[in-house]
Amino acid sequence: MADKRESVRIKDGQQLRVLDEAARRRRQRKALEALEEDNFSEDPHADLKMSKKAPKFDEGIDSSGPGPKKKRKSRGDFKLRYRKTFSALLEEEHMLNKDGPTYFTACAPPSTLPERHFCAVCGFPSNYTCVQCGARYCCIKCLGTHQDTRCLKYTA
Amino acid sequence: MATLILDNGAGTAKVGFSTDSEPKIIPNCVTKAKNVRTRIFIGDQIEECKDLSSLYYLLPFQKGFLVNWEIEKQVWDHMFSKDVCQVDFNETALLVTEPFFNFPSIGESINEVIFEEYQFQALHRTQAPTLSCYKHQTDKVTSGSLFGTLVVDSGYSFSHIVPFYKNKPLKEAIIRVNVGGKVLTNHLKEVISYRQLMVMDETYVINQMKEDVCYVSTQFKKDISIARLKYPENTISRDYILPDYTHIKRGYVRAPEDSGKAKGDEQMIRMNNERFAIPELLFYPSDVGIQEMGLSESIMHCMTLVDKELVPHLLNNIVLTGGNALLPGFQDRVFQDVRSMASDDYDVGISTPSNPLTYAWQSGCDLALDPIFPSMCVSRHDYEEHGHVACINKFNVS
Ligand SMILES: [Zn+2]
Ligand SMILES: [Zn+2]
């Protein structure tokens, strides 16, 4: 542990790189976006689309039900017509729904309870903030781990 | 005419006929498995997959809203087929749920898919909490006041606090907390990957571990001190053995007295403060930097937005639903928090249905039998005659 401490001091003495406010916010935003991700890695079989069991798009579902088979042309283009990103939907809502309760008004407001802080490394309550990146840590040991593995190791 | 009930959650769809006693629970997604190149898995077909490591998910929902029909259509086709429900569209009405404040264009897409692609005979669109409120009111015949019901629905994408006056949702007082099961699992993946073992691609496994060992604390500070101790004083720590899908088919908790190092080739995760710190996000979203009130604080905030006369009724009639209500300690925590924040003049009454995940679906079955139900539906004829307007006028959505 003594070694770690020393290495920290040498680093400090040479050149202290500190993330500015904008970079910290960027990093925080990325962390929040990561919480919404469906997958971490890329699709391993991006080329693989259909199973034999799955009905093909244009077959519609006329072939499955036992009812009388109607000749009917599926307007399969609905999948594209209704394909909107979430941000596009928000924008639309913003334009069309000016008054009355909306998706936006329903969002919980910021908490009035005092914020709690936990060590990024071990998860226990933390009293210290890394001066370089703003992450929380609880002890020298965790600070060392943080500096060796995260901190400025990846740039936001 | 039969009625199919579809509680179309972003995590799982609950589907079945109103005459069924239980719904089928179908993962609302298409999955690809790392080691299976020959096929994809639609919904519950994933049960046929022997190796559930490194699954790749295609989800029709984004932030709780249905945005990708390319995927949803595959899941619905499968659910309506003989493999799951065997729907005869010529003889069936559909009751389907959607989130509060669903966007109008998504609503239109649902109308169109239901009536034009599938040709159901009739449609009723509503929200899961509205169904839950209906069942809570009809089940609770003995109690006094049913003027107000407060449904807390904590699901996959987010959690909603929904106050009702009788059966009517008070939309101006609905609160959405953007924390649900997905955020919990993703955060757990993140902390385990940093602290112990790279599991960022193991959503399925880690979600199962979350369901197996996480709980909601009712004594957070005390649990933190216990988690700092060593075995046997540390009564919280659990060693969780991960599945390898050859010898170990499913993850499991090792008995505390056997805890220690991993044996042989097995992979082990030690769940200590993570067991309760992860579900804390439901109550303190700010723990991960989401600047929103948590569930209990949101309940109290909701009380400031409704008619004062209704507050005692709501606080005494809180119903907890959604998958996160299955976390041990969830109800105790909500009670403890609300009791401590609410005025002593009010009674606080909270209940959790025996299955909070399928409660809305069960309620849909009851509603489908209610004599008023047909009048709540838009028929295919109405839709063909009047289009989306018929639906806008009939359903209390968006
Ligand atoms: Zn620490
Ligand atoms: Zn740092």
Automatic annotation (TrEMBL), chain A:
UniProt keyword terms in alphabetical order: Metal-binding, Zinc, Zinc-finger
InterPro entries per the UniProt record, alphabetical: Vps71/ZNHIT1, Znf_HIT
One Gene Ontology molecular-function label: zinc ion binding
Basic and acidic residues: compositionally biased ranges: 42-59
Domain HIT-type stretches: 119-151
Signal peptide stretch: none
GO CC entries: nucleus
Residue numbers spanned by region Disordered: 30-77
GO biological process: chromatin remodeling
A Pfam cross-reference name: zf-HIT
Entry protein name: Zinc finger HIT domain-containing protein 1-like
Natural source organism: Biomphalaria glabrata (Bloodfluke planorb)
From TrEMBL, chain B:
Role of this protein: Actins are highly conserved proteins that are involved in various types of cell motility and are ubiquitously expressed in all eukaryotic cells.
Entry keyword annotation includes Cytoplasm: yes
Coiled-coil regions listed in the entry: none
Lineage: Eukaryota, Metazoa, Spiralia, Lophotrochozoa, Mollusca
Name of protein: Actin-related protein 6
Entry-linked InterPro entries: Actin (IPR004000), ATPase_NBD (IPR043129)
Keyword entries, A-Z: Cytoplasm, Cytoskeleton, Nucleus
UniProt record similarity statement: Belongs to the actin family. ARP6 subfamily.
Organism (species): Biomphalaria glabrata (Bloodfluke planorb)
Record gene name: LOC106073568
